[in-house]
């Protein structure tokens, strides 16, 4: 039986900034991965961002990208139950064993709303296989929120991406319109620097860090 994993991001490029190296490892190990993007990107990139997103995800071997096409930076205007229902549909369709999504403390409101919808849609129900829920850090969002206990990204799960960092950067190059010049955190150098910092924490050259939200052993 094929085992699916969902990456659920708010905007095109979010899904890869925080987890592309890990996703590439999982794909190499035989997992099927689906990306879901809840909102559109910036208005000036709207005419081609979905095409760029498909290319970026294909670069990693991701099976499919699903765009929900809500308006950028207006997810707070979408009733939570509507977004939850949309995500429940795909969770039911793919029965993922893991979901990667935004951290609840990100400064971007679309990230926060996406996290809340995922948390609700993936809630553990009787007679349902458990879903491991992990949050990733998104450069230029996770580190810009106030460093208080309720908002701080607290990594407790690290994945060695030394062998897949090049694949992550290659995928992000398809999103070049979203990348910035260093020292902006959402730059190629910023991605590599964060990978090194997380790698040092885990005793490897490059790593991605996650905060585990829910893990159930039935």
From TrEMBL:
Its cofactor is Zn(2+). Gene3D superfamilies: LmbE-like (3.40.50.10320). InterPro entries: GlcNAc_PI_deacetylase-related, LmbE-like_dom_sf. It catalyses: (S)-malyl N-acetyl-alpha-D-glucosaminide + H2O = (S)-malyl alpha-D-glucosaminide + acetate. This is GlcNAc-PI de-N-acetylase. It comes from Bacillus nakamurai.
């Amino acid at each position: 039986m094929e085992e699916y994993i969902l990456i659920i991001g708010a905007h095109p490029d979010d899904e890869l900034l925080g987890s592309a190296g890990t996703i590439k490892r999982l794909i190499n190990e035989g997992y099927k991965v689906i990306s879901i993007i809840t909102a559109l990107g910036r208005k000036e990139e709207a005419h081609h961002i979905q095409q760029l997103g498909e290319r970026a995800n294909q670069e990693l071997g991701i099976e499919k990208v699903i765009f929900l096409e809500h308006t950028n930076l207006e997810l707070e205007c979408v009733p939570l139950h509507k977004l939850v229902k949309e995500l429940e549909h795909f969770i039911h369709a793919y029965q993922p064993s893991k979901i990667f999504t935004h951290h609840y403390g990100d400064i971007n409101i679309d990230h926060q709303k996406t996290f809340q919808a995922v948390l609700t849609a993936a809630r553990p129900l009787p007679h349902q296989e458990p879903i491991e829920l992990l949050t990733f850090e998104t450069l230029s969002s996770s580190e810009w929120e106030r460093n208080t206990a309720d908002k701080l990204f607290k990594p407790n799960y690290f994945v060695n991406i030394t062998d897949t960092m090049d694949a992550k950067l290659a995928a992000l190059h398809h999103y070049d319109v979203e990348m910035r010049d260093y020292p902006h955190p959402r730059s190629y150098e910023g991605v590599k620097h964060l990978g090194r910092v997380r790698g040092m924490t885990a005793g490897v050259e490059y790593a991605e860090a996650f905060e585990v939200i829910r893990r159930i052993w039935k």
